[in-house]
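ugh ok fine here u go
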Amino acid sequence: MSDQYADKSLERIIAFLDQPAFTGFTNHDLFIKQFVKKGWGQDIAALSNIAEGLRNLFDTGRITPTDLAPKMARVVEYALHPSVSPWKRPITSKTHLGGHGYYLEHLNIILGCYQATIDDRHLELNTRISEHLIALTREHSLRHARLLPHVKMRWCADQAAVLYSVWLFDQNNQTTLHHHTANEWLTTINERFTHQDSGLYQTEALGVKKYSKQPRGCSSAYMIYYLGHFAPETAASQWQLFKSAMYEKTLGFSGFREYLPSYNGQWTPDSGAIIGGIGMAASALAIKAAGIVGDFHTQQALISSANRAHSLINTLGHLPGASKFTRIATDMLASGIYLAGSTTSPRITSTALAA
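structure:
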């Protein structure tokens, strides 16, 4: 089927990476920066998804090594830029990486995608970050790494991303750094952080938020995608539970709820807009999750709905003053997630966790 949203997303990404000089994400690049100057980490998350989307295109022969190399190099350059990095000095000059797990998980994914497609020039940094993320995870008895210094919250989905980033390092280098810690985390989350009614994993490990013990759509989709690489059987099980509890079709659109019907939750910057219970972020991230578990029927239904919604948003964007709000579906985070999701398919996965 034609996927105009993916084509447009790739066009926007290429233009973004080909700009003459990068000085940081603007409020045109990220919707959230119209309201929050720092962007709450959506810059590094956008780059992480862009790197995965480009890798997927490379893996399926839709971009040549010659065309890919400068694009991947720019993604790494942007990710290390002082406006994106939590440090003003280059990361290579930092003695301690500290509790910046969120930034480091996504930087590690970018470096892993770079090594998988281009070369080993960033291997030393990739190794250092991977080892640090495992150490950061093991600092806490619940095996959830700090994501930001002095912030108590430990997001379960981000821990899955931490472990995926190290899994990717292991895949590239024939190492086993993630195995033991991933096993411990999986045991902990199954025993301590499974929602009783739905069987889905809860959102946050330390009970900081009102909704911490609730499964959320964006969290579940995010987690299932990353689990699909290093714990595929768990991902498949969670996907079936996720579909049963949160997948809906309404007014000809397919999407995933942000909250269970039994819970009255509000939108957050992570969820994006919630319309009739359907979450924008949950539905977009579910395209990646559906792809990694091989549920192509649901993936195509979500892609079809996304294309229809994108066409509607494009139409509304021509109205005076509307572009400020419709940019939420066309900024670099949305474009990166959609490109990565629409090109995701089941990958060779590690079976060593069972050993």
